Each structure stands twice: as structure tokens, then as C-alpha cells.
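# nightly structure sweep
# worker-07 picked up a monomer target from the shared queue
# config: single-sequence mode, recycle default, output format = C-alpha cells
# input follows
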Amino acid sequence: QVRLVESGGGLVQAGGSLRLSCAASGRTFSSYVMGWFRQAPGKEREFLARISGSGGSTYYADSVKGRFTISRDNAKNTVYLQMNSLKPEDTAVYYCAARQSYYSDWGQGTQVTVSS
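# output follows
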């Protein structure tokens, strides 16, 4: 089990950027695939991106491909989500999650609001 704490959310104008961080507890962080998700009001949770334990492989949802970048620093037990060219429709609560066989551990979320 790993404890996850997101940070870096806030209010930004359309076209702006934010970088989210997700700090993990535990000594086996590099054994987890890490993912970012979001949930907007009245909508289902949406997968955004994932990164392999080594950081060598990434995968993105079409909705964020080319705008968002996932990365990780295993020495710091942290995964990041760099978000550029933000749009009002990116407004949501953003979550990180850890996966071995499935996404079993989730953070509490951080709010991102993009104003038009």
C-alpha cells in the first residue's frame, strides 16, 4: 500500500499552465505504475495518463495528448503532471493513483479551475 498526496492545483486562465505533483510514501514507489485521472462535476472519473515504474514508458488519453506530460522522480517518490494550454473544460479534481495489478491506492485530489 502507498499513501499519495497531490498538490499544485489552483486557478489559471485559459491557455495557461500548471504542474501537479503527487508525493508517495513507502520504499517501493518504483514498483508502481502511476496514473493521473480527473473528475469534473457530474461526470465520471476520466483517465489521463500513466507512466511505468522506471519512467521509460508513458501513455496518454487522446483528450490530453500533446498538452499534458507525465513524469516521475523515483528518488523523490513523486510523480508529476505538467499541463499546458489549459482549457476551461480541463476544470476538474485531479487525482493520482498507484497500480500494481490495478489502481489500488488513490490520493485525495487537487482542484484545477481554468477560467475563460
